[in-house]
Specification:
The chain is α/β, with parallel strands linked by helices. The protein has helices at about 15-25, 50-70, 85-90, 110-115, 115-125, 135-140; strands at about 1-5, 30-35, 75-80, 100-105, 130. It has a single domain (about 1-140), classed as HUPs (Rossmann fold).
Length: about 140
Amino acid sequence: MRRYLVVANQTLMSAELQAAVRERLGTPPCRFHVVVPATPPRDQFSWTEGAALVVARERLEEALAWMHSEGAISTGSIGDADPVLAAIEALPRDRFDEIVVSTLPPGLSRWIRQDIPHRLARRTDLPVKHVVAHVTALEESR
């Protein structure tokens, strides 16, 4: 069984990430574990850790409901605000075959500026698929 670790936050319900999940569902059997880093909301200057956790939990629940509706075997967790640390902390849960990281586009994405996809590949020795979400599609879905 192929196992995928999905790391995303703001782009968790993007069409691009959904397409990547569906592509992997096309070669069953497979299983997904979704990690949502509890990163600070980007549209707020002041925030609390509790607020970041609430937003991450809502996004995770929505994504898992969607995955289950697609027939995916999936679990999820809220991770550290640092996406690399969040992914590394999830690794002991299972033996993963690939990490799927979803980000905003270049210029908007803190994760791209922090080189998260490449850092994950170096730290985990796993293949990393980088999915870039289109901003207009995300704005329309909110």
